[in-house]
Each structure stands twice: as C-alpha cells, then as structure tokens.
Design goal:
This protein is mainly alpha-helical. It is built from 13 helices and no strands. Helix content is about 55%, strand content about 0%.
C-alpha cells in the first residue's frame, strides 16, 4: 500500500495530503500507510499538507507520528514550506510538535507573511539569521517589497546597514519599504540623503 504508481515516488498518502483529503489519509494510515514515506525528492505527506495549508490534515499526520523535521533534498522542511506559504495555523501546529526552528525567518520574510515572521521570531530569537546564501530576513523582506514584514523585523531588533537597505528597496521601487526603514529606525533620514 505504498506506491500510487507515480514516477516521482509518491504514495497514495502523498496524493491525499496534497489534495487535503483528511478522511482518505486517515483511512490509509489505519491500513498501514507509512506516515514518513518520502518521494524521491524527499517530500513527505506532512510537507505537502503544510505547504497547502491543510492544518487539520497536518495535525492528523503529526499525531500519527509524522516527523516535523524531515527535510526534502533541497533542505526545506514542513515548517519552511508552511511559513513561506503563510499558513500561520500550520506553523503553530508544527512548532507545538517540536519542529526545528532553524528554518530561519528568511523564508517567511521573503514571502511577505508577517504573522509567520512574528511566530518564528517568538520561537527563534535570532532576527539576523541568514538563509543558505547569507541573506538576512530583513534583506529578503526589503528585496521583495514587503513593508509590513520589514517594519516587524525592525521592531524586533533587526539591524542592517541603513544605506544598503535603503538602496536595495529604492532600486527595486519599493517606496513603502523605504518608508518603513525610515520610520522604524533602520536608517536616519540623513543617511537616506
């Protein structure tokens, strides 16, 4: 009862999780489906449920023993995926099940999900933690034009070279980010001139 015949190695449980079919997933688990089975890319049913925002299903998978810290081949885990997609309820559920918060705030910041950023900051206090390329959450937020996230990060103590942050935001036409940086102390107006 493991393979649905997919070339990527997906199981019937993967399909049910991606589609949000909680009742089918529950039936499959009751009949012995492996809750932690991974596709060839390392993707698990929990990762699919988390990325799609299927909170009830994610909770059921966790209760059945799904590993909240399993990583796919690119290093992302269910917390990364739910934070990036802005599924606040799933982020909370994963944190409640001891999901590793090394997920970095950068993922949620780059996607512009201020609620997920705030939750991750509460659980993981390093507001400066860079992603795999060394880019900080603040730089991700500014680069992608997420003024509310920029303001939340600055309010949480994020600091960056004000000139670099302002130049980055201005070069991409993100006037609201420039305003957030100036308003929340990421730079002085003198630095901006």
């Amino acid at each position: 009862m493991s393979v649905a015949g997919g070339a990527a190695g997906e199981t019937m449980l993967h399909v049910a999780a991606a589609c949000g079919y909680s009742a089918i997933a529950t039936q499959l688990l009751a009949r012995g489906a492996s809750v932690n089975a991974a596709m060839r890319s390392g993707v698990t049913a929990l990762m699919l449920a988390a990325s799609e925002g299927h909170g009830e299903l994610a909770e059921a998978l966790l209760a059945a023993g799904a590993d909240p810290n399993a990583r796919q081949s690119n290093g992302l885990n269910a917390l990364h995926l739910s934070a990036r997609a802005g599924h606040f309820d799933v982020v909370l559920e994963l944190l409640a099940h001891q999901a590793s918060v090394d997920a970095r705030v950068s993922v949620a910041a780059g996607a512009g999900h201020v609620s997920a950023v705030r939750v991750l900051l509460m659980a993981f206090s390093d507001v400066h933690a860079p992603d795999g390329q060394g880019v900080s959450p603040l730089m991700h937020a500014a680069l992608h034009g997420h003024a509310r996230v920029t303001a939340a990060l600055l309010a949480s103590g994020a600091r960056c070279d004000g000139d670099a942050l302002l130049v980055l935001a201005a070069a991409h036409g993100h006037a609201a980010v420039v305003d957030a940086v100036l308003t929340h102390g990421g730079a002085t107006e003198q630095q901006a001139l």
